Amino acid sequence: MLIKKSLKKFWSILSKAGTNGTLKQIMVELNNITRTYFLGIGGIGMSAIARYFNTKGVYVSGYDKTSTALTKQMETEGIHIHYEDSIELLDKETELVVYTPAIPDHHKEFMFYRQNNYTVIKRSEVLESITNSSFNICIAGTHGKTTISTMVAHILRDSAYGCTAFLGGISVNYNTNFWSNNTKVSVVEADEYDRSFLKLSPDIAVISAMDADHLDIYGTEEKMEQAFIDFSVRIKPGGLLLSKFGLNRSADMKASEHFTYSLQNESAYAYAANIRMMHGAYQFDVITKSWMIDNIILNIGGMHNVENAVAATIIAHHLKIENNKIREAIKNFAGVKRRFEYILHPSPPGEKGGDEGNIIFIDDYAHHPEELKALISSAKSLFNGLKCTVVFQPHLFSRTRDLAEEFAKSLDLADEVILLPIYPARELPVAGVSSDLILTKMRNRHKQILTKEQLLQWVQVSAHEKNQGSVFITAGAGDIDTLVEPIKNILTLKQR
What we know:
The chain is about 35% helix and about 20% strand. With about 500 residues, the chain is an alpha/beta fold.
């Protein structure tokens, strides 16, 4: 009991020091923790850390707003989760409470822990402590970071190089967003939300994009860009920075080594060449100023994923992984759930119907205009000539308000667009902000707003269009993923 009280006191001091900004750096000892509690445990970043503690034999429990496939899987792993904001259900014996910034201040459990002097710290502070003594590969960017970090972690695992991975998506190869390894190498998705990535200390860092986002946190695009510059400053001496070619303020980024990468721009340090599309997949060469790896095969869709593979390849080569092992790992990389994920695959050439008679169903997490642009452009390029229908669920009132015009331009690339109501996530409604704000700015005439129930009815009626061949895409970061299985069932039945 004395040890527990001392540990609580130590963590309480740490938490207050971090909040007040009075300590710049502190080494945190986590090995003595026996019980942890997570507020928002079903979040993709939170769940990875919860799984970390669970694999260490720590008693892990937590709260989340809704039950999902992820939380159900975590429960089968021995993690205890409830879905009601209730003081009676929380763990009063916990030594450490980890919370996501998305948890509102008025949350009952959050208030209880803070008012009763429990150790309550942010997810980013725990991740900082976990990775303090490891060789860290940290992937940042307003988009692209989940696929790049998962691809890098997969290459290291598949090649037997080894790593511990904290990912922002579910790897299709391993059906998880976390795994551990005895090597002191960590692959971490560096989240810019709430400036979380400024707690990390990378040995290798990637900045894939700095498009305006999270303006509810940063206020202006300039302040958000500055956060990425500050992230680059955190790279350890002798470390490597990779940034996408052409990023604004690239010259201000700091690192001992700084390379740029691109999809096809030969002015970058590394780029893809001789790209061949192969029925939903790609074959290409990665060319750099000093070396190359030819005949890489990527079996997931999206030209943006070819660019992501260029970044992952540079990291693997920098770690001296053999070319053949890099090729083999990328070839068997199955992608990330909800990142250009094929729900209904394109039919191989020569099979009955081919692409001309089947509906190709793609699901994607895209929730930013640039992500939507890349998603729709890639789908139309891969399946040229097929009608492209996009169902998009806007995420956050603030993001919809700030980027409505950009969303409209990206969605206009599709042949037909269906908007769902805004998913509020952590936000309360904002007067005058709805999905109609995007709809009215679109030039595409084939557009409408439907509820989730109306969408399923629409799919049931409209699925006969399969005879003409089409690409059907669901996109968004809210709960649109709960519609994927019902839509798949409808389309599958209609295609029989």
